[in-house]
Amino acid sequence: MTNLEKKYLRIIEQLQSLFAQTNNPQSRMASVCALLHHKMDHYFWTGYYLLDDNNDLLVSTYQGPIACLKLQKDKGVCWASINRKKSMFVPDVELFPGHIACNSLSKSEIVIPVYRNDEIVGVLDIDSNKKDAFKEYEIKYLEQINILIYS
Fold first, then answer.
1. What residue numbers bound the domain in which 70 lies?
2. What is the pTM of this model?
3. What percent of the chain has pLDDT over 90?
């Protein structure tokens, strides 16, 4: 097991302890963003985009530079994750067709759907300012973290 994997496991344990204090999803998402963003050196932007009643994908809780407030429907990595109903791992965002560049410093991205009662309600979006910053195995830990939001 790598040091990074051990770090994810410690973060998951810490989040479980924090989440015992409240079932509020917004509070939990805020804690996820803060903890991940400040513990992971390769994270440049860490946040949630949530679907609203009009099926628009809007920025919610995040850490990092200013973000796009609304993501154009069916474009970019976040919408690809929602439409494909799967996590997305993009080592080089410039090679991803239709990538939405909210910040030109973003070079790689990982996006994890958020489910409530088996329905996607949004995504956890994490960008790095370095290409190939993420390991594909990070998806499984981030998926475990997202499961905790509504559990």
1. 3-149
2. 0.96
3. 94
DSSP the chain: --HHHHHHHHHHHHHHHHHTT---HHHHHHHHHHHHHHH-TT-SEEEEEEE-TTS-EEEEEEESS---SEEPTT-HHHHHHHHHTS-EEES-GGGSTT---SSTT--EEEEEEEEETTEEEEEEEEEESSTT-S-TTHHHHHHHHHHHHT-
| Average pLDDT score over residue span 89-111 | 90
Q: Is the confidence at residue 134, as pLDDT, over 90?
A: yes
The CATH number of whichever domain residue 80 belongs to comes to 3.30.450.40
Instruction: With a cut of 90, say whether residue 58 has pLDDT above it.
Output: yes
